[in-house]
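User: I'm preparing a small set of examples for a lab meeting where we compare how different chains pack in three dimensions. I only have the primary sequence for this one, and I'd like the structure in token form so I can line it up with the others. Please keep the answer compact; I'll paste it straight into my notes.
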Amino acid sequence: MINITWTYALCLLLLGGPSPVLPAKPPAGHAPNILRVPLGGNSWATHGSDASATIGNDGLTNWSNPASTVTTYVRFDKTGPVTLSVKLRVPAGKSRIRVSALGKQQEIDVQGAAETDQLLGQWTVSKTGYVPIVLEGLSKTGATYAEVVDFGISGEAVDDRTVFVRSNEGGMFYWGRRGPSVHLRYPIPAGAEAEWFYNEITVPKGNDVIGSYYMAAGFGEGYFGMQVNSPTERRVLFSVWSPFKTDNPNQIPDDQKIILARKGAGVITNEFGNEGSGGQSYLRYNWVAGQTYRFLLHGQPVDGGYSQFTAYFMPANGTGWQLIASFRRPKTTTYLTSLYSFLENFTPQTGNVQREAEFSNQWIRRRDGQWQELTDTRFTGDNTARKSFRMDYAGGLRNGQRFFLRNCGFFDTYTPLNTAFKRPAGNQLPAIRIDALP
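Assistant: Understood. Below is the structure token output for the 438-residue chain.
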């Protein structure tokens, strides 16, 4: 097949025309539409008993354990042939590596300390969706199998809708490996001032993945939900942002700091940063997947130009409402606004594992004391989802009753962002004695 661009450029040079600007010539064996898939933002290592195979911004290093496998994910929007290559170097010795993808395997012998692009031949994408490309080390004479930078893909199945994290601009490798965060936004009925917000959350069994935050009651100034922090620790967490925009809590002026009004027994409070800054509170509580937990949030203006936000949590056994904390936010006079729930992964190491949460029986209690059920929601996503760095996200209505969110794990079917959903009214008014809350 003749490359028209290069043929035209050669004619210009022979005829004495202006010097053309040539595109980068693709590596041997690749089509001109080659894309590079960096391991730094698209790969995860699975280890045996000994740690090995580090994924960093520059790719795969420290790959010495034969039990380690490294999986890179690419989403194809078209079917057809694709040419595959891998860019790597072997610091010392010789190695034999297996590449598995699309129902077949290719073994290659590699050596040399300089980076080279090893052609892996033509493969076939038979269905649209995510494709895992798996690296395994078979043998080596040096300390490590190889240092791997990226995969090259080209051909009929590759186009501008092929999805992966393409560069680390803006620290995107970190965010891409965390995975897309997704939200359910609950519109407040016109004319209503929401003083209270009630929501129920259930994490299905098997979906309590380390690094997950299942946020039940988000609002314009903060968020309230539960987390899996480690194999042995889980938390109920409530935070309120300062009106001063910074990721460093030490930069917040005294007159814009969040003030703790009170907190519940066993609750830890401090400041937080990195994703905005403000006041944080959490209760170490070993909640259980498969059980339903209730969240209640209060917000109203108070004296001095503040608004006070208070969070209450109900265990699955219904033993009573527990106070988490009450914060005062300066330079703020508002009831609850912008109500939403979300699902996020805050640990890049588990961004390849799918997780879900279900949300049910949403209500507000208006300033006039009337309860009103919320039955509408809109599904949205963060920057990782909006810019199609990753498309393993979904949300909607389950069994005609509960809203749900799903993310991570590289599943194929996604929910278009900004899709609206409506559940039938359950008319299950929460039985809450406001005057008896702690």
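A couple of notes for your slides: Residues 54 and 105 are 23 Å apart (CA to CA). The two ends are 76 Å apart (CA to CA).

User: Perfect, thanks.
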